[in-house]
Design goal:
transport; Sugar ABC transporter permease; flat; 2 strands; MetI-like fold; two-stranded antiparallel sheet
């Protein structure tokens, strides 16, 4: 009579011995992920579908469905404009930072006295330019470059890029010093990537008569493609948490407004996340396709 129960017990005992130890090791991560990632994300999505009021008894939720998402594009006059403007700025900032980091890493990868000091100097802004420090620097006008106004470059920029993109280009030019402060990590990634290229390859092409210019385009740059994609992903994520980010400011402002509140602010945050996710997916697709073509050719 008890034979089926014994078989089931032995089966569960076998599975516990086989997977139980591994699950016990994973248990702290599972608890942490559930408490600090899964629950907040799920709760945020829940709030984005409700009108959230704060009363004497705590939060009160009123079901709205997708109305908050609809209002973000139809009723809100600031959010779509800020979102488009900020994405335009990102499309300029990301290539500037990555190209600047690539050029600086090429220079810092050369052998010269005091090289480690120069590497440390380029990395120092990453340590000091934390969120609150950077906010204070912005408030005090540090990092602004007045040459756009001094030399009256506004009309010239409008002539070549159009009025629609002139403000974006002028903003990026005005903040170019602070933007370049964000290149410290990317420089380190590029320098680490250069160490993966065997010096014997450079020696071989030098014997064949290739110039340093040829070596860069034929060896260094193709070998740096994975690190370029990594730096672009890092830069995109880093800039989307920029302290001067107008989208994050708009979301924070709506959190404390009576007519919008936490529900609408969460909906804006999810829309913002969706745009970031799509942009990252496009970048990853582009570079994975490039890497696939290179592997086929090789």
């Amino acid at each position: 009579m008890n034979k089926p129960l014994d078989i089931a017990r032995q089966r569960y005992l076998y599975l516990f011995k086989k997977y139980g130890v591994g699950m016990l090791f994973m248990l702290p991560w599972i608890i942490g992920f559930s408490a600090f990632v899964a629950y907040p994300v799920g709760y945020s999505m829940f709030m984005s579908l409700h009108k959230v009021d704060i009363g004497p008894d705590g939060f009160q939720y009123h079901w709205l469905g997708l109305k908050n998402f609809h209002d973000a594009f139809v009723v809100d006059n600031e959010f779509p404009i800020d979102l488009i403007s900020f994405f335009q700025q990102m499309l300029l900032m990301v290539p500037i930072i990555v190209i600047f980091a690539l050029l600086m890493s090429l220079m810092l990868n050369q052998k010269f006295p005091g090289r480690f000091i120069y590497r440390a100097i380029f990395f120092l802004p990453v340590i000091f330019a934390t969120g609150q420090v950077l906010t204070e620097l912005f408030a005090q006008g540090a990092g602004d470059i007045p040459f756009v106004d001094q030399y009256n470059l506004g009309p010239l920029i409008q002539k070549y890029v159009g009025r629609e993109f002139a403000d974006t280009v002028m903003y990026v030019l005005g903040k170019v010093i602070l933007i370049l402060w964000y290149s410290g990590v990317q420089i380190l990634i590029f320098i680490a990537g250069f160490q993966t290229i065997s010096p014997s390859i450079y020696e071989a092409v030098r014997i064949d008569g290739a110039s340093p210019w040829d070596s860069f385009w034929k060896i260094t740059l193709p070998a740096s493609v994975p690190f370029i994609s990594l730096n672009m992903l890092y830069t995109i994520i880093d800039l989307f948490t920029f302290p001067d980010n107008p989208i994050i400011k708009h979301i924070k402002n709506n959190m404390v407004k009576i007519d919008t509140g936490y529900g609408y602010a969460n909906a804006l945050a999810w829309i913002y996340f969706g745009f970031i996710f799509v942009l990252i997916a496009i970048v990853m697709w582009f570079f994975s396709r490039s890497m696939s073509r290179r592997s086929v050719r090789s």
